[in-house]
């Protein structure tokens, strides 16, 4: 688990997640390809491509003629606060707050009264060239303080937090109108005027770790969906053999609808699969034949039954933490699982001693959707939606079962090898 904790702690934003996955792939001799160049895959066999610094597709070729693609997908982003342009907001000449907005649907109150830091990427003008730099201030620099109960005595009866006022973090005392820009420039090692663009976010400083009398649970920010992204990364690195092209797709922007150039609702996956086939000198028909014998596992965390809200779950199809990999079903196909894809996955799990459990929404409560049904609109292959059972989804700190992670890693590895 130490490696997983290090990965979680070192991945405060989607940009850092992708950089960390790329670094692991580099160490395992994957070749980095650019979408701007032609690809020669026969010599490389293992490669990856990054889009927007925040999404990544890795692939590994079989030794024989491939039968199709085996695709494992997850997402790199998590709900958080995005820092707006002109972020410094002085208060009565005394304090400075940071102007932020919501990214994705989060539990706002979970961000209060905990140390926060700032990370993301900036685009720097480096002698006429636009250069991307990752930033991680990696220090407790901000806090969103609650209002004292004496001034809001009904708070425990429910309170509607307004992002534009209630959720702005305290950054420093007044005195320097340029303090924020200088902190970021200092972190990057450039002048403030050289920074021409930024994607910066707040992140909670809570470190990943065990909780529970017997270390049976894990808490961390961003378990949704970095636990699955990490499992996919381990799977494609560890898997050996197999007759299929192994594909790991980690998309950005799942939390805001996926419809960006680096999201699951983009051409990224279809473009990449086509380029792989093209570099193997496959015809269009040969490519379509590969797709016809392909399968996708869409991995995104699932809601574990909550002891305080048992009525919100389906009466029987409710998973528990440490109960194994969750297979998600939905009648309206918000999850892409069907009889065939469920059977395919259950067979794989049965043959490899991987426990599975089922998830369906309570029929009176609409659930979320995920990567599977969005991605299959572009790359139409049988798909199963799965995940790890967790509590407090989209809270600043989430909880999952400590024994489940190894099940997901094993599933991904065996999926690629089968
Ligand atoms: Zn998710």
Describe the structure.
The protein has helices at 2-9, 14-27, 41-44, 179-188, 223-238, 268-279, 284-292, 339-351, 371-376, 404-417; strands at residues 31-33, 46-51, 55-60, 69-75, 80-91, 95-103, 116-126, 129-136, 170-173, 195-204, 209-211, 217-220, 245-251, 295-299, 302-303, 325-329, 356-360, 383-387, 389-391, 398-401. By secondary structure, it is an alpha/beta fold. The strands form three sheets. It has a nine-stranded mixed β-sheet with strand order 1-2-3-13-4-14-18-16-17, with helices on both faces. The longest helix has 16 residues, at 223-238. The radius of gyration is 22 Å and the shape is globular. The structure holds zinc ion (ZN). Zinc ion is lined by residues 75, 224-225, 254, 300-301.
The neighbouring-strand order within the major sheet is 1-2-3-13-4-14-18-16-17
Task: Output the helix-strand order.
Answer: HHEHEEEEEEEEHEEEHEHHEEEHEHEEEH
Shape: globular
- Secondary-structure-based class equals alpha/beta
How far is it from the N-terminal to the C-terminal residue, by CA? 25 Å
Which hetero ligands occur in this complex?
zinc ion
Computed CA radius of gyration, to the nearest angstrom = 22 Å
Question: Uncertain spans, ≥5 residues at pLDDT below 50?
Answer: none
How large a portion of the residues is in β-strands, by DSSP E? 25-35%
Count of discrete alpha- or pi-helical segments spanning 4 or more residues: 10
Largest sheet: 9 strands, mixed
Helix content: 25-40%
The count of strands amounts to 20
- Average pLDDT value? 96
